[in-house]
């Protein structure tokens, strides 16, 4: 029997997780999985809500995956509050929480990893070596552990979403991947567990990232040249007060390759405010390629 945190049934071992999902499947129910690292906010709640729409049962996972953090990244200070997360999940009508210990995910001798391929080498992959291999490996494990029918991931982490789609396709993992639009604050800032790190001054600057991405997307979609507009966007992010811009680039929405005429594209950025790295992305609507000059893609 699963233990409970508050009113939410909670399991910490793969065997218990599989037992619960198998029982629902025997009853003919559709099961959705929502993987998270906890510190839940309304972005995560949107994933749970979408999962509820699509499935009879919703399993959320909370696991702060050490292998997707670089040595100088924020693994140790990443916000953790399982009791508050469990209360949110229960209120969102999640059926089960799977919160494994690190040793359950990575027992002694663990050696196999999933390489995320070329999709992992661009954008954030250039700045976070090993990050997407960590993500691809842990998500593959979570998908295989749960055996759910579908799994929901946010477009906020769009590169991650595309990598997961590719891994699932390439490795024939029998699950449907559902992308969920980014949930934002009223001023446009994408919700993120890392927003909690921002000082009031940094928080005031942060919405500029989305503002610039929206402007770049609109201009390129209406025919402005991609390269120049991305460069102007990069300058605007720096001028807004960000400490450092890792990238601002327009890329194909599926392959993440440089954009091509007639194909859907998105604009992506990662920028630092002090010690906090923010990422965001926006689609180019109408579909990229209907305008005039469409050369290149990298800022
Ligand atoms: P995390 O806990 O940051 O690993 O995120 C868990 C899931 O929530 C991922 O699929 C994220 O893409 C998604 N997510 C995080 N922030 C948002 C947001 N603002 N809107 C929609 N989904 C989000």
Task: Give a structural overview.
With 299 residues, this protein is of the alpha/beta class. Helices cover 36% and strands 19% of the residues. It contains ten helices and ten strands. The chain has helices spanning 14-26, 42-54, 82-91, 102-105, 124-127, 131-146, 158-170, 200-205, 208-221, 226-239; strands spanning 3-5, 8-11, 31-36, 57-62, 96-98, 150-154, 176-180, 244-252, 265-273, 276-283. The strands form two sheets. Strands 1-2-5-4-3-6-7 form a seven-stranded mixed beta sheet, with helices on both faces. It has a three-stranded antiparallel beta sheet with strand order 8-9-10, covered by helices on one side. A hairpin with a 2-residue loop joins strand 9 and strand 10 (276-283). Helix 9 (208-221) packs antiparallel against helix 10 (226-239). It is globular and about 60 Å long. The termini are far apart.
> Which range best describes the helical content: under 10%, 10-25%, 25-40%, 40-55%, 55-70% or over 70%?
25-40%
Euclidean distance between termini CA atoms:
54 Å
Spans of 5+ residues with little confidence (pLDDT < 50)?
287-299
**Beta-sheet strand percentage?**
15-25%
Query: How many beta strands in the DSSP annotation?
Result: 10
Using brief descriptors, characterize the structure shown.
single chain; alpha/beta; 299 residues; 3-stranded antiparallel β-sheet; 7-stranded mixed β-sheet; disordered C terminus; binds adenosine monophosphate; 36% helix
Write the layout of secondary structure elements.
Layout: E1 3-5, E2 8-11, H1 14-26, E3 31-36, H2 42-54, E4 57-62, H3 82-91, E5 96-98, H4 102-105, H5 124-127, H6 131-146, E6 150-154, H7 158-170, E7 176-180, H8 200-205, H9 208-221, H10 226-239, E8 244-252, E9 265-273, E10 276-283
Parallel strand pairs: 2-5, 3-4, 3-6, 4-5, 6-7
Antiparallel strand pairs: 1-2, 8-9, 9-10
Helix pairs in contact: 6-7, 9-10
Bound molecules: adenosine monophosphate.
